[in-house]
C-alpha cells in the first residue's frame, strides 16, 4: 500500500512534516517502510520557452535552441539532438549547475564547437518514465514560464510505502488511513469524505429495466450492488486522476479502469466494470463455478475453475472470477459504451482460496481476503458513477441494484474496564475506556454490570472480534510507550534441564580439545550425499524431502551432520586454511516411512585436517588427534565401556583401513570415526588424511549417568612401575593387548599406558613392538618386588599364550 | 721451636693462598694441605710432644682456633665458588623469552551459540526454564493452535516449507509455547531457542534457515506492563544501558495486543544511518499478550490466566551485536571468521 501525502490531505487537513507523519503512522501500527519525495532531483528544473531554433554549423543532427526562462531575460543557447523541438514550445529546462535525478550534472560545454549552457530534458532524464524517451518533454501552453517544473507537475509530494499487517485492512484505502490519523492524532479535524452527487439520466428509465442480479450462493457473496452508466467514451483519464494513481503505484489505463482503481484506493472497495453490452440479457448470476469450467481472464490466461470458486456469470458464460479478476469476454475496451459497475462483498476465505488456487493475487483479492466494509458498497459504487458522469456524454442510469441477502449485523462485545486495566497494567476509568473506543468509531454503552461496557463494532473494523482486540485498541490510543514497565513476580528458579546442561558441557569440552564450533544448514542437497557416497549407508539414505523446496540445494533435510562438516572443511581448505578442527551439534532427520513424523536425532559430528604430530608413526596424525579429543570427552562425561572397533564393511565413504565404529559395551554402535576415503577426499577438495566422526548425542546422554564425584582416599603406599616391551605379529590390535594386560593385572595393576610402537630393522619383518608402562600399587600395603614380579610374569605368560607375543630383547 | 710462631705462619700462608683459590678442586687441595691428616695443622699437633707440657694447652687451643678459622674460610669460599659456578651455569642456560609459546588453540564458540547462550543465561537468571520442540511440526502446532487458521491472510506472513499434507518445517519457535502449555499447568516461564525455516530466498538479509528464541510467561495477573519491563531488561542486558526501547502496535495472530520492539540504533544511537534505514531504530523482536484463543486452545482459562510472549531472531541479534552485514557469513564457517569470537 502506497499513499501520496497530497492525496491524503484531501481527506484530512493535516500539516505534519513528512518525517513526523511517517513516525506517527509507524507508531499507530501502520509501519512505514519508506518515504519517497516525488520531486526528488527536480527542484531546480524550470519551465523555459524555445524562442528560436538555429542550425548547427558543424552538425546535421544537432540544432541550437535559444531558450528563455523569462520574457525579459537573455536567451540561452542549448545544443540538442532531440527530433521534436519546435519554436514556441514550453519545456523543462535544466540550467548550468543543476543535477538531474539520474545524477547527471549540467555543465557549460561546447558541442561540435558550439556553446551549450543547459539542457532541455526528456521524461526519462527527469525520472518520470523508465524507458528511453524519443525526444524532449513538451509542456502544455498554460505552463508558467520560469516557474518550477515540479510545482507545475504537482510532483511536490511525498509517497509513504506502508507495510500493513492483516489486521489493518481498513487502511488499504485513503479514507481509512485518514480516519486512523484523525482518531489518533487529529481529533479536532473533520474527515472529509467526498460529497457525492451526480445527475441520473431520467430519460433512460431505471436500472431494473436493464439489469437483473441473482445471487445463487449468498454464503460466498452476501451483497452485490450494480449500477449502469451509458454512453461512456473510453479515453485517457484527466491528468489529476493519473497523477493520483501513479503516486499510489497504479498504472493508468483508461478513464473507466482508472476510476475503478481510484475508488478502490479511496474507499478500499474493489469495483469491477463490465462492458454491459457483452453481458447476455443484462443478467448477472453470482454462482459457484462448475467443476472444470473454463474462462479466459483479463490477463489472457485460460483458467480452469472448480466448484469451490465463485464466478460472476451471465446466462451463458462466466464473466468474472468474483472478486479476483474479470473475464476477457466482458472487458471494457475502446469500443465500450455502456459500463456496468459492480461493487460487492465477497467471502474472504473463499476469495483467498480461489486466488491461491489460481495463483492470481490482485489488488482486489488482497482487499476482499482481508474484509472490506460491506456497508459502504453503494457509496463506493456511487462515487464511481459520479466520476464517470463527469466524462463527456456519460449518462448514469437511475437507480442501483442492491442484492443484499445476508445483512450485516454489528458485533457487540462486552468489555470489563477492570480486565482492561489488569491486562495492560494501567488504571483507566470506564469513562476513559469509552472515550478511547469512541475516538476510533466504536459505539460504547454502559452494560448491565457496573464497570462493564457494551461495545458495538463499526462495519469497517473487520478485524475486531473479541475483547482482546478492543484491549489493543485502548492500548494504541493510550500509547504503548506510556504504559509503565513492571516485572512479573516469580517464585521459580530458572535452569537448564540435565540434557541441556550436558550439551553445554560437551561443547565446552570439545572446544577445550581445540575444535571450533560450526553451524551449518539443515536443508541440503541430495547430491552432496551421493557425492560423498553416503547414501549406501542405510540411515543416511532415509531422506525427508521438502514438498516445495526453494531449490535442489535446499531439497532435503539432513540425515547426517557429515555433508555440512565436509563442506566447511573443504571450503576452508580451498581458502588456503592449513589446518582446521571443527564440530557441530544439531538435529538430523530420518524418514520413518508412511505419513509418520520423521525421526529427529540430536547428533554430534566433527572433522579435522592439517595436523602433523604423528604420535604412533601410523601416518594418521589427524585420526589420532581426533580420537584423543573424543577419548577425553568420554572420560570427562564419564561414559565408560567405549571401544573403537575396526569398521569392516559398513561405511564405504571412509578409508577401508582407517575407520572404526565407536561402540558402547562392545555391542551398541553409537558412532564412527575415520579418514575420508582418499578418492572422495580428492574429489571433494579435502586434504589427504581428513578425519571425521559422528556420534549419537541422545544415546550418549542416555548412557551417561548423573555425574558423581565421590572422593576416593588417596593411597599412601608406593607405586612400583615396570616397563613391558613386547613383540607380536603386526596384525594384532594393540588395543587388544592393552585390554589383556589390564585384565591379567588384576586389582594391583593401577595403570597401563602405551608409550611406544616400533616396526623396523631391529625386529623381524611382519612383527611390531609395543612398549607399555605398568603401574602396580596395593591399597593396603607396600608391594614387594616379588609380588609385582609374579604378576608381571603372569601377564607376560598370558600374552605369549594368547598372542604369541614375546618380551622384546629375549 | 715455637709452635705458636708456626701457627701464625700457617695462618698467614693460608690466608694468602685462599685468595688464589679459583676452583672447587683447588679448594679441596687447600683443605688437604692445611686440614688433612698430613696437613699443616696436624703437623703442629704432631709436634706437641716436643714442647713443654705447660705450653701444650696454649698451643693446642691456638691450633684448634686456627683449624676452625681455616675451616670456616674454606666453607665461605666454597659457598662463594658454588654460587659463582651456578651463576655461570644459569647464564649458559639463558633462553630467548621473546620466542613464542607452544601453540595451544582453544576451540571457539560459533557467534550464534554465543548469543543464544547469553540470552539463555539472562533468562535463567529471571527464572525462566529452557524448552524445546521438534523442527518438523504439524499444521496444528505451527498454525492452528496459534490462532492462524487455514485460509487466513496471516499465513502470508510466513512462507512455509512443507514435508507433506500433515507436516511442515516450523516457521517459528512459537509451537513450543503450545507444547509447553499442553504439558504443564500455569505458571509458565520458558524460553524456547531453536532453528526455524521459511521459504525465503537466500540473500544478505534472508536465510531459509535461521534461529529464534521464543519466550512465554503465563500466570495470574500478567500484564502488558510486565512484558515491557521484561523486554527492557533484556535489551539492557544485551545492548547496554544507553539504548532506548520503543514499543509500537503490530500484529501477530497469537498475541493481542501485539507489539514490535525497536531499540535505538546501535550504530548511530538514533541519529539515522544506513543500518537503521535512517529511522534511528532497529526492529529487534515481536511481542504481545498471549491471545485468549491460544490460551483456550491449550486448555488454559483466559478469564483467569494471562500471559505474554515474544520472539527474537537470534541470527539478527548476532548480526547486530557483532556488526556483521551478511547473514550468510554465519553459515560459511570460515575459520578466520570463527576465530574472531
Automatic annotation (TrEMBL), chain A:
It catalyses: tRNA(Phe) + L-phenylalanine + ATP = L-phenylalanyl-tRNA(Phe) + AMP + diphosphate + H(+). PROSITE patterns: B5, FDX_ACB, TRBD. It is an enzyme of class 6 (ligase). GO terms for molecular function: ATP binding; catalytic activity, acting on a protein; magnesium ion binding; phenylalanine-tRNA ligase activity; transferase activity; tRNA binding. Binds 2 magnesium ions per tetramer. The keyword tRNA-binding applies. This is Phenylalanine--tRNA ligase beta subunit. Residues 408-485 form the B5 domain. The gene is pheT. One of its GO terms (biological process) is phenylalanyl-tRNA aminoacylation. GO terms for cellular component: phenylalanine-tRNA ligase complex. Keywords: Aminoacyl-tRNA synthetase, ATP-binding, Cytoplasm, Ligase, Magnesium, Metal-binding, Nucleotide-binding, Protein biosynthesis, RNA-binding, tRNA-binding. Its EC number is 6.1.1.20. Belongs to the phenylalanyl-tRNA synthetase beta subunit family. Type 1 subfamily. Residues 715-808 form the FDX-ACB domain. Mg(2+) binds at residues 463, 469, 472-473.
UniProtKB/TrEMBL annotation, chain B:
Belongs to the class-II aminoacyl-tRNA synthetase family. Phe-tRNA synthetase alpha subunit type 1 subfamily. Its cofactor is Mg(2+). PANTHER family: PHENYLALANINE--TRNA LIGASE, MITOCHONDRIAL, PHENYLALANYL-TRNA SYNTHETASE. GO terms for molecular function: ATP binding; catalytic activity, acting on a protein; magnesium ion binding; phenylalanine-tRNA ligase activity; transferase activity; tRNA binding. Binds 2 magnesium ions per tetramer. The gene is pheS. Tetramer of two alpha and two beta subunits. Gene3D superfamilies: Bira Bifunctional Protein, Domain 2. GO terms for cellular component: cytoplasm. Mg(2+) binds at residue 256. This is Phenylalanine--tRNA ligase alpha subunit.
Amino acid at each position: 500500500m502506497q499513499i501520496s501525502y497530497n492525496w491524503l490531505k484531501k481527506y484530512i487537513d493535516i500539516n505534519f512534516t513528512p518525517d513526523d507523519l511517517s513516525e506517527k503512522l509507524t507508531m499507530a501500527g501502520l509501519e512505514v517502510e519508506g518515504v519517497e519525495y516525488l520531486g526528488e532531483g527536480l527542484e531546480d528544473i524550470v519551465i523555459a520557452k524555445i524562442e528560436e531554433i538555429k542550425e548547427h554549423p558543424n552538425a546535421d543532427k544537432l540544432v541550437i535552441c535559444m531558450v528563455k526562462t523569462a520574457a525579459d531575460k537573455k536567451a540561452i543557447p542549448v545544443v540538442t539532438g532531440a527530433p521534436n523541438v519546435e519554436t514556441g514550445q514550453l519545456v523543462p529546462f535544466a540550467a548550468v549547475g543543476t543535477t538531474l535525478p539520474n545524477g547527471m550534472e549540467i555543465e557549460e560545454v561546447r558541442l561540435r564547437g558550439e556553446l551549450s549552457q543547459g539542457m532541455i530534458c526528456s521524461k526519462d532524464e527527469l525520472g518520470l518514465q523508465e524507458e528511453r524517451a524519443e525526444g524532449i518533454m513538451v509542456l502544455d501552453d498554460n505552463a508558467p514560464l520560469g516557474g518550477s517544473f515540479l510545482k507545475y507537475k504537482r510532483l511536490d509530494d511525498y509517497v509513504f510505502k506502508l507495510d500493513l499487517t492483516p489486521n489493518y485492512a481498513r487502511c488499504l484505502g485513503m479514507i481509512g488511513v485518514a480516519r486512523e490519523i484523525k482518531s489518533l492524532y487529529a481529533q479536532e479535524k473533520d474527515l472529509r469524505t467526498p460529497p457525492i452527487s451526480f445527475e441520473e439520466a431520467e430519460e433512460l428509465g431505471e436500472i431494473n429495466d436493464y439489469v437483473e442480479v441473482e445471487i445463487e450462493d449468498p454464503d460466498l457473496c452476501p451483497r452485490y450492488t450494480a449500477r449502469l452508466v451509458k454512453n461512456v467514451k473510453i479515453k485517457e483519464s484527466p491528468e489529476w486522476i493519473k497523477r493520483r494513481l501513479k503516486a499510489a503505484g497504479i498504472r493508468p489505463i483508461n478513464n473507466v479502469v482508472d476510476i475503478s482503481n481510484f475508488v478502490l484506493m479511496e474507499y478500499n472497495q474493489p469495483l469491477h466494470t463490465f462492458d454491459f453490452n457483452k453481458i447476455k440479457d443484462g443478467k448477472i448470476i453470482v454462482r459457484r463455478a462448475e467443476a472444470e469450467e473454463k474462462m479466459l481472464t483479463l490477463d489472457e490466461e485460460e483458467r480452469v475453475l472448480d466448484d469451490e470458486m465463485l464466478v460472476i456469470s451471465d446466462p451463458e458464460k462466466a464473466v468474472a472470477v468474483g472478486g479476483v479478476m474479470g473475464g476477457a469476454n466482458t472487458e471494457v475496451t475502446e469500443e465500450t459504451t455502456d459500463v456496468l459497475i459492480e461493487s460487492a462483498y465477497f467471502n474472504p476465505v473463499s476469495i483467498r482460496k480461489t486466488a491461491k488456487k489460481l495463483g492470481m493475487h490482485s489488488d482486489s483479492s488482497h482487499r476482499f481476503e482481508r474484509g472490506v466494509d460491506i456497508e459502504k458498497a453503494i457509496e463506493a459504487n456511487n462515487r464511481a458513477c459520479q466520476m464517470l458522469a463527469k466524462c463527456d456524454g456519460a449518462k448514469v442510469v437511475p437507480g442501483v441494484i442492491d442484492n443484499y441477502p445476508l445483512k450485516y449485523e454489528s458485533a457487540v462485545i462486552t468489555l470489563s474496564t477492570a480486565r482492561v486495566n489488569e491486562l495492560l497494567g494501567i488504571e483507566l476509568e470506564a469513562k476513559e475506556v469509552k472515550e478511547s473506543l469512541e475516538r476510533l468509531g466504536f459505539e460504547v454503552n454502559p452494560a448491565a454490570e457496573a464497570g462493564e461496557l457494551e461495545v458495538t463494532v463499526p462495519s469497517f473494523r473487520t478485524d475486531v472480534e473479541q475483547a482482546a482486540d478492543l484491549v489493543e485498541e485502548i492500548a494504541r490510543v493510550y500509547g504503548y510507550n506510556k504504559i509503565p514497565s513492571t516485572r512479573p513476580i516469580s517464585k521459580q528458579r530458572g535452569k537448564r534441564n540435565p540434557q541441556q546442561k550436558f550439551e553445554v558441557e560437551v561443547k565446552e569440552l570439545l572446544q577445550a580439545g581445540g575444535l571450533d564450533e560450526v553451524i551449518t544448514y539443515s536443508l541440503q542437497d541430495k547430491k552432496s550425499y551421493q557425492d560423498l557416497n553416503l547414501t549406501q549407508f542405510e540411515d543416511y539414505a532415509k531422506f525427508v524431502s521438502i514438498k516445495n523446496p526453494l531449490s535442489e540445494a535446499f531439497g532435503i533435510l539432513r540425515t547426517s551432520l557429515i555433508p555440512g562438516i565436509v563442506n566447511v572443511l573443504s571450503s576452508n581448505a580451498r581458502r588456503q586454511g592449513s589446518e582446521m578442527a571443527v564440530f557441530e551439534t544439531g538435529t538430523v532427520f530420518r524418514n520413518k516411512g508412511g505419513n509418520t513424523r520423521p525421526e529427529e536425532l540430536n547428533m554430534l559430528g566433527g572433522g579435522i585436517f592439517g595436523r602433523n604430530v604423528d604420535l604412533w608413526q601410523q601416518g594418521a596424525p589427524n585420526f589420532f588427534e581426533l580420537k584423543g579429543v573424543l577419548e577425553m570427552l568420554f572420560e570427562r562425561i564419564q561414559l565408560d565401556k567405549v571401544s573403537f572397533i575396526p569398521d569392516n564393511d559398513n561405511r564405504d565413504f571412509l578409508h577401508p583401513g582407517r575407520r572404526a565404529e565407536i561402540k558402547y559395551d562392545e555391542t551398541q554402535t553409537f558412532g564412527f570415526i575415520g579418514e575420508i576415503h582418499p578418492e572422495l577426499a580428492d574429489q571433494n577438495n579435502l586434504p589427504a588424511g581428513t578425519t571425521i566422526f559422528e556420534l549419537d548425542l541422545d544415546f550418549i546422554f542416555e548412557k551417561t549417568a548423573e555425574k558423581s564425584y565421590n572422593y576416593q582416599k588417596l593411597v599412601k603406599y608406593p607405586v612400583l612401575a615396570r616397563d613391558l616391551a613386547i613383540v607380536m605379529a603386526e596384525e594384532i590390535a594393540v588395543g587388544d593387548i592393552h585390554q589383556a594386560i589390564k585384565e591379567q593385572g588384576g586389582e594391583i595393576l593401577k595403570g597401563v599406558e602405551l608409550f611406544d610402537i616400533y616396526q623396523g630393522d631391529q625386529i623381524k619383518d611382519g612383527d611390531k613392538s609395543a612398549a607399555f608402562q605398568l603401574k602396580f600399587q596395593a591399597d593396603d600395603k607396600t608391594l614387594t618386588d616379588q609380588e609385582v614380579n609374579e604378576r608381571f610374569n603372569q601377564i607376560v605368560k598370558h600374552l605369549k599364550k594368547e598372542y604369541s607375543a614375546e618380551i622384546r630383547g629375549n | 721451636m715455637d709452635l705458636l710462631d708456626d701457627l701464625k705462619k700457617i695462618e698467614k700462608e693460608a690466608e694468602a693462598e685462599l685468595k688464589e683459590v679459583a676452583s672447587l678442586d683447588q679448594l679441596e687441595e687447600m683443605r688437604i694441605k692445611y686440614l688433612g691428616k698430613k696437613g699443616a695443622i696436624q703437623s703442629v699437633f704432631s709436634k706437641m710432644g716436643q714442647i713443654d707440657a705447660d705450653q701444650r694447652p696454649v698451643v693446642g687451643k691456638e691450633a684448634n682456633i686456627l683449624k676452625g678459622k681455616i675451616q670456616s674460610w674454606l666453607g665461605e669460599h666454597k659457598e662463594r665458588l658454588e654460587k659463582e659456578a651456578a651463576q655461570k651455569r644459569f647464564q649458559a642456560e639463558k633462553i630467548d623469552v621473546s620466542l613464542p609459546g607452544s601453540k595451544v588453540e582453544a576451540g571457539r564458540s560459533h557467534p550464534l551459540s554465543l548469543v543464544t547462550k547469553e540470552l539463555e543465561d539472562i533468562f535463567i537468571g529471571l527464572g525462566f526454564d529452557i524448552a524445546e520442540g521438534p523442527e518438523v511440526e504439524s499444521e496444528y502446532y505451527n498454525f492452528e493452535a496459534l490462532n492462524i487458521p487455514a485460509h487466513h491472510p496471516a499465513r502470508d506472513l510466513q512462507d512455509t516449507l512443507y514435508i507433506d499434507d500433515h507436516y511442515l518445517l516450523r516457521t517459528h519457535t512459537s509451537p513450543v509455547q503450545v507444547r509447553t502449555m499442553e504439558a504443564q499447568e500455569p505458571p509458565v516461564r520458558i524460553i524456547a531457542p531453536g532453528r526455524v525455516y521459511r521459504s525465503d530466498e537466500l540473500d544478505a538479509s534472508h536465510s531459509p534457515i535461521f534461529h529464534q528464541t521464543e519466550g512465554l510467561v503465563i500466570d495470574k495477573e500478567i500484564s502488558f506492563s510486565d512484558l515491557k519491563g521484561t523486554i527492557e531488561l533484556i535489551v539492557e542486558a544485551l545492548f547496554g544501558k544507553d539504548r532506548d526501547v520503543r514499543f509500537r502496535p503490530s500484529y501477530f495472530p497469537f498475541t493481542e495486543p501485539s507489539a514490535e520492539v525497536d531499540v535505538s540504533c546501535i550504530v548511530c544511537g538514533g541519529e539515522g544511518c544506513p543500518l537503521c534505514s535512517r529511522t534511528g531504530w532497529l526492529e529487534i523482536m515481536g511481542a504481545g499478550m498471549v491471545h485468549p484463543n491460544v490460551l483456550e486452545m491449550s486448555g488454559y482459562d483466559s478469564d483467569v490466566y494471562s500471559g505474554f510472549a515474544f520472539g527474537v531472531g537470534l541470527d539478527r541479534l548476532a548480526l547486530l551485536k557483532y556488526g556483521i552485514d551478511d547473514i550468510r557469513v554465519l553459515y560459511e564457517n570460515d575459520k578466520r571468521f570463527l576465530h574472531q569470537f
